[in-house]
Amino acid sequence: MTQLIDGKKISQEIKDELKEKVAELKEQGIEGALAVIQVGSDPASSVYVRNKKRACEYIGIRSESYELPEETTEEELLTLIEKLNKDPKINGILCQLPVPAHMDENKIIRTIAPEKDVDGFHTQNVGALVVGQQGFVSCTPAGVIQLLKRSGIEIAGKNCVVVGRSNIVGKPMALLMLRENATVTICHSRTADLKAVCKQADILIVAVGKPKMITAEYVKEGATVIDVGIHRQEDGKLCGDVDFEQVEPVAGAITPVPGGVGPMTIAMLMNNCVEAMTR
Ligand code: NDP
Question: Is 16 a catalytic site residue?
Fold first, then answer.
């Protein structure tokens, strides 16, 4: 029978472990605070920001909200980030992406102090991942590793195919699987015969951003399938990049959408916040 990888349950376990750790740190006089910046009022971003603040409350760290109007200048935002960089009470800073079009996203990411970059997007943290040094790792791919490990799925020596090469998901995902000793292939829009490449995978990780693109034809019998995608369909229901109904009978293990990778992102953000407290 296909194993359903339960991200809701695993993310709850992680948050409960973090809650205990935060309580221990508090006893030693170490307090945590995350600064959450949102520019503009994109409804999806507002939901993410609210959930992040709720998670902080749950594990027992303070969150400070900075809700800036859409017309905020880049300079004003950078000044705020620099002020937060210097604030010893703030351990983590995150700026909800995307920022409005008149701002340079890369410049904003670069301005956040690497030791407070709990999203793991700063080039210093990305570089640390490449060379195998300690640093903050992008939350969604870090969450996938936890899903696999905590579901008892062996990674070392396995053929892993990652579909997607974005800076936030695909590339760090591939690097993390490499760190866990998988043999890794990265696919993208120019990959020739994607189906045949995916069919080689023992672990297929999909972050392609196309609803239900991955059908049963892409999947080897018994493979583990991790679906990072998330899309709202016309009927209001959520779906992933994988056609779950078709792929589930073929796969050995699979993540559902919702309730798979999604909840792990915030759990791993909280993990990075606690790590920032202990550094
Ligand atoms: P991007 O759009 O940045 O990247 C998509 C990648 O898929 C690109 O590398 C692109 O290739 C590749 N791609 C696009 N079309 C094809 C194709 N037909 N065949 C092969 N490769 C293709 O997306 P993200 O990485 O930001 O996100 C991916 C998905 O994950 C989205 O659905 C997003 O909503 C979801 N997501 C979910 C999160 C969560 O918490 N669960 C967090 C972040 C993202 P190329 O580089 O050549 O253009």
Answer: no
